[in-house]
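Request: Show me your protein:
***
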Amino acid sequence: MPPRQPHLKAEFALWSAGSRLVAGVDEVGTGPLCGPVVAAAVLVKPHTRKIKGVRDSKTLSAAQRERLVDDIKTRSLAWGIGAASVAEVERLNVRNAAALAMRRALRRLPAHDHVLVDGQKISGLEEHLGPYTPIVKGDASSYAIACASVLAKVTRDRLMARLAVRYPGYGWEHNAGYATRDHVAGLRELGVSPHHRRTYQRIRAILEGDQLAFDLETEDRAGADLDEVEVMLA
């Protein structure tokens, strides 16, 4: 079955109702064992025409995402990146850290009328975002959210590749921090790095010396801390 193509139904409904400036926001990085959660926000042009090939970033190869990301940036009204560090993931839990990353991404945009958010409604988020609409699997159905998902994924994958240079042996340059076989092998051989999420059960098992059988991410999930994000945005 071919991947779903995102549409502009939600965006056109908002434009028709008077919300001219509509942003899509999405995050990546809640599942990996290490690294930050990264979010992107994209303010699409009213009545924009879709960029061919844009869809849920998980259905695209790394090369396809890289080819799209510059078009998304140049053909949108504005875009922004936000992140939540490993320390914030540990302190807030990953769901709340993801919401924080999305808020930070949206703060980098100019004023906007409405936000389309991938996922379920998040209690208390409206006071930070203003009017917003949650869309379950929005990265597969909303064009604005799909644009954000591509931008977020490319940004995080690049960050993890940078970290892989400083912390070789975990395979972050291609597994982006997911629990692949080479990542788990690196953890067992090298131990836990400062960028690993130590509250995660799999990481705690290694810290405690437990030879727990890992539930491996066997597929290639082609796809830092906050200072890494700031360096990239500079």
Observations:
- The radius of gyration is 18 Å.
- The longest helix spans residues 143-166.
- The first strand starts at residue 22 and ends at 28.
